[in-house]
Amino acid sequence: MTKADLIQKVAQETGIERVDVHQVFEACIANIKQALSAGETLYIRGFGSFQARKRSAKVGYNFKHKSSIHLEERVMPHFKSSKIFQAELNGLPIPGDDD
Fold first, then answer.
1. How high does pLDDT run on average in the chain?
2. In terms of residue numbers, what domain contains 49?
């Protein structure tokens, strides 16, 4: 599924104009990026959390040229799914739902 497919599907399910759904989606993505850039962790209950993690500098190896390369320290996005989301994907009972 692409971003366009997702926007189209949400527009159909909600009855909201596709253009409006696109604007809301872009604003959500921009805010997620901004929060991660600021070092914040973003929690979406029932879905998971997004976090920016630092990867330290290290020496790597380029197999094509058979030489060592230096990899700089960098920040990488990380997503951890919630237990509820994992249970839904696997068709298991939702944790804490005793119904």
1. 93
2. 3-90
